[in-house]
Known about the structure:
By secondary structure, the protein is α+β, with helices and mostly antiparallel strands. The strands form three sheets. Strands 5, 6, 7, 13, 14, 15, 16, 17 and 18 form a nine-stranded mixed β-sheet that branches. Strands 1, 2, 9, 10, 11, 12, 19 and 20 form an eight-stranded mixed β-sheet that branches. Helix 1 runs parallel beside helix 5 (143-156) and helix 1 crosses helix 8 (341-353). It is 26% helix and 27% strand. The chain has nine helices and 20 strands. A hairpin with a 3-residue loop joins strand 10 (167-173) and strand 11 (177-182).
Amino acid sequence: MAERVDVAVVGGGLMGAAAAWAAARRGLSVAVHEQFEPGHTRGSSHGSARIVRRGYSDALYTRLSGEAFELWREVELRADVPLLRMVGGVDHGPNRTALVASLLAAAGIRHEVLAAADAEARWPGMHFTGAVVYHPQAGTMDADRAVAALLDLARRDGATTEYASRVAAVEAVRDEYAAVRLADGREFEARCAVVAAGAWVAPFLGGSLRLPPLTVTQQQAFHFPRRDEGAAPWPSAIHQDAMEVYHLPGGRDGGSGDARKVAEHTHGNVTTAKTRDGVVDAGARDRIVRYVTDWLPGLEPNPQGETTCLYTSTPSEDFLLDRVGPILICSPCSGHGAKFAPLIGVLVAGLLTGDRPVPDRFRLAAHTSMAAVAKVSL
C-alpha cells in the first residue's frame, strides 16, 4: 500500500511554506517537497525586504491586508523570529493618492494626507510633487526568514520537508486522492496536493487544469546607498506616475548601510522558470537611475547592488487560489502576494477543510471569465 498523507505541498517558497504551516496546525499530515536547496534564489521568495502595507487602490486587498498583519504577528510570536520592520508607508502619484486615502478612511485605518512640501520636510531626500498619503501600518517583511519560520512552525506540528526533491507529476485519481510521483521514482498518495510552485505552475498543471494565462517575467531590483547613511529609515513607498515604482529599506540585501531597494512593478522581461537568465536588463537599470536622480535625491544615484526575481502574473493581477478535486492551485503572486503569505496559507487550509471561503475573484472561474481583463490597481 502506498504511503499516504493528508496534504502534499509542491514548492517550499513563501506560499508553500504558509500552506504547510496553516494545514499542519489544523492537525493535517503534511509533506513539503521543494526541488531546490533551502534559501535558493531561483523563484520569487528570497531576499530580506518585501513591502507590507495597508495602502491599496483596491478595497478587497485593503481589507485582507489587515488580517494578514494579524497573522504575521502570530507567526513572529510563535517562531520567536522578527519578520516585520514597521517604518510606515507612503503612496503618491496623481491617480493614486486620493483613492488610497479614501480606501484607508473607509476601512478605518489610521493615515494622514500631506502636502508635498510637508512630506519633503518630514523625509528629507525624498521628492514629491503632489499630495502624499502616509499610514504607519506599513514597512518591510524579511522573506528569507519568513520561509524558514513558517516551515519550522509546520515541522513543529508534524509536517515533513524534503529539499532537492522535485515532484515530477501529480495526478487526480477518481477525484478521491492525488497520486504524487517524485523525480527519483518514489510515489505516494495525498488526499490533496497543493501546487504552490510559482513560475513552474503553468508547465506543471497546464495539461490537466484549465488555467488562465500566467505570464512569467524577470524583474530587476537595485540597491542605492543613502547619502545620509545611518539616518532614520524612510518609509516604504509606492509611486504611480509615468512609471510604477516601489522602494523600501533593503535590509541585509542592502549591505551594512541598509541601502534603498528600488524597482519597477512593470517592465519585466517575459521568460520562463527554466529559461530566465538572471541578467539585469540595462534599460531597467537606466530607468531606475533616472528615477532615483529625479525623485530620490537623498540617494547616491549609482546602484551598489542589483538582483533579479520572478513574477508570475494573472491577466487581472488577482491571486489564483482554487481547488479542483484533490488538486489545489496556489499561485497568488502577480508581484504583490508576499505580504499576504500567512493569509494565503489560511485560505488554503480553508479549501482543504471546507470551512473558510476564498474570495470569488481568486477562483479559477473568475480568472477564465471576461471579468478578469481589468487589472488590479496596486
